[in-house]
Amino acid sequence: MSIDIFLNLTVRGLTTGAVYALVGMGIVLILQTTNVMNFAQGDTGMFITYLAFFMITTAKVPYSLVLILAIAAGAVVGLLVERFMMRSVRSRSHLSLIMLTLGLSLLFQGLAAFLFKTEPRLFPPLVSGDPIKLGPIILGRQDIVVLLAAIATFGILYLFLYRTKQGAAARSISQDEYAARVLGIPTPSIYMLVWAIGSALAGLAALLIVPRFSLEPSFMGLIQVKAFTAIVLGGMNSVFGAAVGGLIIGVVENLVAYQFPAIKDSFMLIVIVIVLLVMPQGLFGKRQQRRF
Amino acid sequence: MLRVDQVVSGYGPIDVLKHVTISLDKGEIVAVLGANGAGKTTLLRTITGLIRVRKGSVTFGDKVLNGLSPAEVVKCGISHVPEGRHIFPDLTVEDNLLLAAYAMPRSQQKGRLDAMYAMFTILAERRKQAGGTLSGGEQQMLALARGLMPNPRLMLLDEPSLGLAPKTIGTVFDTLAHLRESGVSILLVEQNAKRSLELADRAYILVTGQVALEGTARELSGNEMVKQLYLGGTR
Ligand SMILES: Nc1ncnc2c1ncn2[C@@H]1O[C@H](COP(=O)(O)OP(=O)(O)OP(=O)(O)O)[C@@H](O)[C@H]1O
Ligand SMILES: [Mg+2]
Questions:
Q1: Searching chain B, which residue's CA lies closest to the CA of residue A174?
Q2: Mean pLDDT score of chain A, rounded to an integer?
Q3: Which end of chain B offers a freer environment for a tag, N or C, measured as fewer CB atoms within 10 Å?
Q4: B74 CA to middle of ligand 2, Å?
Q5: How far apart are CA A243 and CA A28, in angstroms?
Q6: Residue whose CA is closest, atom 31 of ligand 1?
Q7: Which residues have C-beta atoms less than 6 Å from ligand 1?
Q8: How far is the C-alpha of B141 from the C-alpha of B29, rounded, in Å?
Q9: Residue A287 falls within a domain, yes or no?
Q10: Is the residue at B163 inside a domain?
Q11: Residue A284 confidence (pLDDT) above 50
């Protein structure tokens, strides 16, 4: 492998990794605050992408507006899911909460297949035009957008968590939910807010990714698995870990795929197993999980 | 000021409190004593809305608290310092304090924060330190300061001396006496019956979810049963 190829594979891996990071950050935000692994993260995004698709192709809504609407739609879905599904079950059984998100994922897939049919559709990229050359590196414009979006999202999440009182409340809940309630922190509204932000991220992520694939009900499935891998690698408990984990996996995967195309996807599952065996706390995780 | 009237509450199918009636007047320190599992913590949780009132009523001033969320109860002027302190281990001392005054506007938060640092100088020194790195005594001070942050009229304290060295216990009780001077009423749950009865104006003895005995602290200190069960020997 020449150095040029290596550089190109790495940078392109970073842009793929940015996708995993976007999905992973949303999952970790929800996981950390509400202690629920949201298996519907990917398919929430998928469903919203369908809505966006018809807005663009049928209703001819401008792309920038669609992006905003998709983020807003994600937030609304998150609010509804927390308010009408999670909240009533939360006090009763934790396991059912997780099963609920699995069910939600299947619901979105079924609904999409039923309403929009399963045949793949080509989704126009947000930005078109010739790839950009940076020295030996060639990068698609959409890839650059994805990378920038991931960085911006990380920044915004960081500001939310560390500079706002709602963010501080979310962190406090992740450390000691009982204490947060005792102190009079309105935990139900924080849960709603976090679900809204997390699901808005799902919409944004899926919309940015889909031009690289084609739009079909299952297109987020594998990406979500990779995002989970990113979270495990990053330590399960930080947005930062999910972001870095996502980037690392994107790069490693791209390099592996170049040498051994056949094991591209299974490789990541091997990575999960190894990480869990060798360093269960991941790269940036705390040794003990405070929630359990 | 606070009236708990014939309250029944509990967990799942079990009623822990069985028609408990207690009251507290403005400026009083009232102690609630009782053995492990008597329902003292449950009583405090019921008052602050962490668990539902099943029967009876809780009123504060002329406001009925039944059905309010803990966030709403704090806004009414009641704060709850939980058993076991429950400091957020990875948040700074300052964030721990600020979160305790969540509903307060930022401008007021600042003033409360300064007041807490003036009262608990050790917390001022440790303001940027993670809560989990404080010693047990320091954590209890932080827990008390969190309880004071929202500027409550009534504080519910659940075993503030639990697990502390005798000297630190002294500091905690001195702080409580000082709080009374500043006009905060206190409902105090304690295992340390001797010191509580020295500090409190009145007390209730809770036995398996019912008020078995009540009276002024002086009366109860002289009561034979109380002497035997709660003041005898060990303390
Ligand atoms: N979260 C809970 N779920 C179910 N039962 C509980 C819960 N918390 C307490 N109980 C039960 O309620 C009863 C009263 O408990 P509570 O904590 O109020 O007692 P306590 O007087 O505070 O005791 P201690 O002095 O040990 O703190 C006990 O039998 C306890 O097992
Ligand atoms: Mg107790």
A1: B88
A2: 91
A3: C
A4: 20
A5: 10
A6: B37
A7: B 11, 16, 34, 36-42, 83
A8: 19
A9: no
A10: yes
A11: yes
ipTM field: 0.95
CA–CA distance, B105 with A39 (Å, rounded to integer): 37
Q: Say how many domains are in chain A.
A: 1
- pTM here is 0.91
Mutate to test the pocket of ligand 1, among B4, B36, B43, B229 (most ligand atoms within 8 A of CB): B36
CATH number at residue B17: 3.40.50.300
Question: Is the residue at A272 inside a domain?
Answer: no
Q: In 3-state terms, what secondary structure has residue A59?
A: coil
- Is B126 within a domain? no
| Average pLDDT of the residues in B44-49 | 98
User: Which two three-digit tokens encode residue A77?
Assistant: 């879905």
Structural domain contains residue B104: no
Instruction: Tell me if residue A172 falls in helix, strand or coil.
Output: helix
- B42 neighbors B210 (Cβ within 8 angstroms): no
Domain housing B67? 2-87+154-230
- State the smallest CA–CA distance between residue B90 and chain A in angstroms: 7
- When divided into structural domains, chain B yields a total of 1
Q: Residue B233 has what pLDDT?
A: 47
Which amino acid is it at B86?
H
- Distance, CA of A257 to CA of A277 (rounded, Å): 24
Q: Name chain A contacts of B82, Cβ cutoff 8 Å.
A: 178-179, 182
In a domain, A34, yes or no: yes
SS3 B143: helix
- Of A184, A180, A246, A253, nearest to B89 by C-alpha is A180
Does A11 map to a domain?
no
Picking from B67, B149, B58, the residue whose alpha carbon sits closest to that of residue B103 is B149
| Of residues B147, B201, B153, B143, the one with CA closest to residue B177 | B201
Contact assessment for residue B209 and residue B39, using Cβ atoms and an 8 Å cutoff? yes
Residue where the block lists tokens 């630190």: B168
pLDDT at position B230 over 80 = no
- From B190, B179, B152, select the one nearest B70 (Cα to Cα): B152
Give the domain range for residue A141. Answer: 18-219
Residue A206, CA distances (Å) to A11, A24, A40, A128, A285 in order: 20, 12, 12, 18, 26
Over 90: is that where the pLDDT of A236 sits?
A: no
End-to-end, the C-alpha distance of chain A in Å comes to 46
Check: CB of residue A25 under 8 Å from CB of residue A154. Answer: yes
